[in-house]
Amino acid sequence: MITSTYSIALDFQVDNSKLIIPLTADVEVHRSEIHYVIKNFKARSDRNGSVLPDITIKKKNGRWVHMDSEQESHLSIQVGKSIEAIESSQLTETK
User: Fold this and answer.
1) CA-based, 20 to 30 A from 67: which of 19, 56, 57, 74?
2) How far apart are CA 66 and CA 56, in angstroms?
């Protein structure tokens, strides 16, 4: 069950190179088994079409991992950090 949606911004570093792509994406929070579906990855400078496929991640033992493989990737880590920042600011605003 989707309980909330919001947008995130992140700087995606391509593999171990110096190439960094500023991205935005939409996050769907599913609370039944807490996980996040991230969709519509777009370059901040170009709002046309998604530049990456959708991913589904969750936080497990303090690590942001993909739901299917339960492995972390650079993308899952970067998206997870952006989710934590948004959710932390939302908690601060409600206090």
Assistant:
1) 19
2) 6
Write out pLDDT tens, residues 3-46: 899 999 999 988 778 899 899 999 999 988 899 999 999 998 77
> Position 90: which residue type?
Q
Phi-psi category of residue 62: left, alpha or beta, with phi > 0 → left and psi -120 to 50 → alpha: left
One-letter amino acid of 40: N
The DSSP call for residue 22 is: E
| Residues 41 and 23: beta-carbon distance below 8 Å | yes
By three-state DSSP, how is residue 79 classified? Answer: helix
Residue 94's pLDDT is 62
Binning the chain into helix, strand and coil, the percentages to the nearest 5 are: 20, 45, 35
- Bridge partners, residue 56, by sequence: 37
Domain boundaries, the chain: 2-94
